[in-house]
Amino acid sequence: MTRVRPARAADTEPIRETHVAAIEAFGPEAYDERAVAAWADRGDDHSLEGLHDPDTYWVVAERENESESGPGGNPPVAGFGRLDAAGAEGEVVAVYVHPDYARSGVGSAVLSNLEGYARGTGLTELALIASLNAVGFYERLGYERTRAVTHETSHGVELDCVEMRKRL
């Protein structure tokens, strides 16, 4: 069973690990080796940037009843997400799932939680920039393509992406 909860500072390293593992596992579906390496290399990463900002909402997904446990005996971080809720429109900044938990409903649970939070703040629409390997996931959950865009990694490598939107 997947449990989604607000992220804590102690989740920083598990989020980093999940982020890199997801990119390395699923990035090659849409991008070449150079692009995947640039995307996965976070350097001086600020994984939980905005954690205490009231307009930024971070969540982690844990799989309960798993045989392994993460730091402090907690269930491992199976996925995470981030929503920026400033302004009239919210932005889903991240939804990542550790490859060990892929296609088990973790990503859907994370996104559903972010959408519920957005509704609770009065937002009526969400936008996001999807990597090419994630477009199908978002389309299955009601997001529509609006235009092709590029995202520049911290190492200057540009990734082809798709801007998407959903009315809540």
Q: Please give the order of strands in the largest beta sheet.
A: 1-2-3-4-5-7-6
In angstroms, what separates the terminal alpha carbons? 25 Å
What's the main sheet like? 7 strands, mixed
Helix content: 25-40%
> What is the helix/strand order?
EHHEEEHEHEE
- Report strand %: 25-35%
Count of the separate structural domains: 1
Shape: globular
Number of strands: 7
Number of helices: 4
Structural class: alpha+beta
Question: Taking all residues together, what is the mean pLDDT?
Answer: 89
**The level-1 CATH class:** Alpha Beta
CATH architecture: 3-Layer(aba) Sandwich
Unreliable runs: 70-74
Radius of gyration: 15 Å
How is the CATH topology named? Answer: Aminopeptidase
Write a concise keyword list for the protein shown above.
168 residues; alpha+beta; Aminopeptidase; 7-stranded mixed sheet; 4 helices; 7 strands; globular
Description:
Helix content is 26%, strand content 33%. The protein has a seven-stranded mixed β-sheet. It has 168 residues and is α+β, with helices and mostly antiparallel strands. The protein has one domain (2-167): 3-Layer(aba) Sandwich (Aminopeptidase). β4 (90-97), α3 (106-120) and β5 form a beta-alpha-beta unit. The protein is globular.
Ordered list of secondary-structure elements with their pairings:
Layout: E1 2-6, H1 12-26, H2 33-40, E2 56-63, E3 77-84, E4 90-97, H3 106-120, E5 125-131, H4 135-140, E6 144-152, E7 158-167
Parallel strand pairs: 4-5
Antiparallel strand pairs: 1-2, 2-3, 3-4, 5-7, 6-7
Summarize the structure in short.
With 168 residues, the protein is an alpha+beta fold.
